[in-house]
Amino acid sequence: MSFADKVKNKVNELRGRGKASAGQATGNHDLRAEGRGEQSVADLRQAGEKVKDSFRR
Q: How far apart are CA 41 and CA 14, in angstroms?
């Protein structure tokens, strides 16, 4: 996994956490769900990159 991909995935994960927290604090269920979705996508991409790395070795 390249460093740029790691950073990009982490930024997306943190953005999702921020949206989820903001949604929870304001009671906005749509914003919270959107944030949790972004976190999930970032986690899946990170897992995919780790699988790629394991095959490259």
A: 12
Number of structural domains (the chain) is 1
Mean pLDDT, contiguous 10-residue spans, the chain (57 residues): 84 95 96 96 91 83
3-state secondary structure the chain: CCHHHHHHHHHHHHHHHHHHHHHHHHCCHHHHHHHHHHHHHHHHHHHHHHHHHHHHC
Structural domain including 50 reads 3-56
